């Protein structure tokens, strides 16, 4: 059975797990047992991730703590990917980013939204750059628009749309970037 690690937890990870509990062997690394903003936690996690067929990074934060936002949305995920590459990880890494990264600013944008959009732009661009380098393993990104989750006050697309895309990407190695 294919093994999948979900790094970050959240509503998307919960729905994916519920829907796929019989399709994959899944382990979730959530905020309660892992801190993506802590370098030592990331180093320890990488060694655990090497045995998984696929790693899905669902970590995301939007709030007034801009430092935490950059660490959660960009620095932690980029660092984990860097370490996986160094260790010649040969599986599939899928990062859940955001379509917000494709339109980072507009007149009267508030600082929190500006920061969030740019953190998502940075992680998406990082994954695109990794993909171009032809490292061992496969690196993909999903950039969904707002979907129904606690982070969006349950407004936006049906979360199952994102789960369906994630399932499709896990099953098809030729797809590496999806904007929803």
Describe the structure.
The protein has 180 residues and is of the alpha/beta class. It has one domain: 3-Layer(aba) Sandwich (Rossmann fold). Helix content is 43%, strand content 16%. It has a six-stranded parallel β-sheet with strand order 2-1-3-4-5-6, sandwiched between helices. Strand 1, helix 1 and strand 2 (25-29) form a beta-alpha-beta unit. Helix 1 (11-20) crosses helix 5 (159-171) and helix 2 (39-49) packs parallel to helix 3 (66-86). The longest helix is centred in the last third of the chain and has 22 residues, at 111-132.
Largest sheet: 6 strands, parallel
Structural class from helices and strands? alpha/beta
Please name the CATH topology: Rossmann fold
Full CATH superfamily name: NAD(P)-binding Rossmann-like Domain
Mean pLDDT: 88
Enumerate how many helices there are, as a single number: 5
Q: What does the secondary structure layout of this molecule look like, with pairings?
A:
Blueprint: E1 3-7, H1 11-20, E2 25-29, H2 39-49, E3 54-57, H3 66-86, E4 92-96, H4 111-132, E5 138-143, H5 159-171, E6 177-179
Parallel strand pairs: 1-2, 1-3, 3-4, 4-5, 5-6
What key phrases describe this protein's structure?
180 residues, alpha/beta, Rossmann fold, six-stranded parallel beta sheet
Task: Provide a quick synopsis of the model.
The chain has 180 residues and is of the alpha/beta class. It is 43% helix and 16% strand.
């Amino acid at each position: 059975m294919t093994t999948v690690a979900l790094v970050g937890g959240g509503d998307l990870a919960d729905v994916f797990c519920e829907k796929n509990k019989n399709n994959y062997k899944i382990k979730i690394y959530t905020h309660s047992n892992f801190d993506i903003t802590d370098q030592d936690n990331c180093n320890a996690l990488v060694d655990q991730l090497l045995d998984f067929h696929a790693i899905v990074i669902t970590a995301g934060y939007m709030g007034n703590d801009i430092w935490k936002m950059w660490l959660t949305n960009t620095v932690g995920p980029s660092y984990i990917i860097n370490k996986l590459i160094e260790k010649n990880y040969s599986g599939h890494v899928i990062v859940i980013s955001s379509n917000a990264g494709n339109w980072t600013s507009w007149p009267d944008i508030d600082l929190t939204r500006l920061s969030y959009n740019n953190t998502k732009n940075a992680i998406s661009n990082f994954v695109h750059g990794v993909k171009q380098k032809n490292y061992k393993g496969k690196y993909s990104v999903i950039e969904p628009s707002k979907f129904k989750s606690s982070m969006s006050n349950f407004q936006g697309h049906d979360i199952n749309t994102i789960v369906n895309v994630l399932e499709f990407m896990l099953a098809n190695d030729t797809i590496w970037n999806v904007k929803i």
